[in-house]
Amino acid sequence: MRPWLARSLFAVSLAVTGNAHATVLSEDEFEGSSTALGAVWRSFGFTLAGPVLAPPYAPLDLSPTVVGIFDTRLYFERKTSRYQFVIHPQLTLRGFSHEVGGIASLGRGPSPPRWLPLSYDFVDESTVKLRGSIDRLYLSYTLGPATVIVGRQAVTFGRGKLWRTSDVVSTFSLTEVDTEYKPGSDALRIDINFGESRDLTIVAAAGEIESDEHDAEVTVQGSTALARYQHGGAIGEVGAMAGMVRGDVFVSLDGTLDLGSFDIYGEASVTHPTSNSLSTPTAADSPIVKGLLGATFKPGAKVTFTPEFMYSGFGAWRSEDYLKALSSERVAIGEQTTIGRLYAGLATQVELDPLWNLVTAQIVNLHDPSGLFSLALQHNLANNASVLVGAYAPMGKLPESGFIPLPQSEFGSYPYFVFTELKGVL
User: Fold this and answer.
1) Which domains does the chain show, CATH number per domain?
2) Among 151, 163, 325, 340, which has the minimal tally of Cβ within 10 Å of its Cβ?
3) Three-class SS of residue 221?
4) Is the pTM of this model over 0.90?
């Protein structure tokens, strides 16, 4: 057995995680109120390996590199018929066998730009980091058809499965392992329901870029203001969104069509950079277009296929320009998860039996060409426990060696990536 695979499997035996395990402190069914206290324990084991982590591409032999993440999240929730208060204090310990820089973020995306100084680094060393934070802190109030939510909350838009070109407030990493909790944004959100399948959402998210976490500044480059209207019908729905995204003028359309045996969905967005925009070193044209087209097929009750095509005007056509794309602030904050222009992907989910599920994904940069392929096997140990083991394998030309290795393909610059995750109620 290869050493890096052995280490990863060893990490599985050490990982201990848990889903939310709530204790209801009080409940009044007639008043529609309740108070609950719970906890979530999660841990992840990541192993990175491959030639890109060894000389001449790295100054030292960093293959394999093992990353362990241990996350403890408490939560308190108070609900009534009118309001809801939620808080999630979180303590996260990260350990690295080697200092490998930004590549260690594979499997977990960065937090979105934020305003409230709700985190503190107890330990911030090159291979050990311990951070305390509050990932959720919001109050919501409902009056008639309108609900107002203010505070740190998850904000999600878009219809894609592999990519979401309209998910611009915050987004997951391309290789995100666990999407149970999306990092919260500091936002004011208003949801208004005008009737069946007719909804208006207004979001204003405040934050900052490249600034001290505890100074609570708000900048144009870190803030977003959007309005989105969605209208549904018998065979599908359509949505339109417009506003300002970190200094850009942003407009998008999305929709889905239910054709019975399968459905089709799509997103398209146009971004017009301004003098306050984040850097776009590879986007020569303005306005900048992004879009995707996908479908969901279910040839059987236990098999789902999801093909997608995606175009990103922020990316580069030529591999010589990939370093420019990587230098963009949009990549650093997670707004852009790819650096090329044209992609195709296929996600597959197969229920092998009620206890076993197989999930695969194939993502290809069509212009390189290069690819990133993943396979994960999930086993439901019980109603409240499961284990997930998987891996990502890159294909493509390796970088050119030199003082600064120059990418010759996007995914050829990725390492092999093995991950493990366990979940269960404690």
Assistant:
1) 3-424 (2.40.160.10)
2) 151
3) helix
4) no
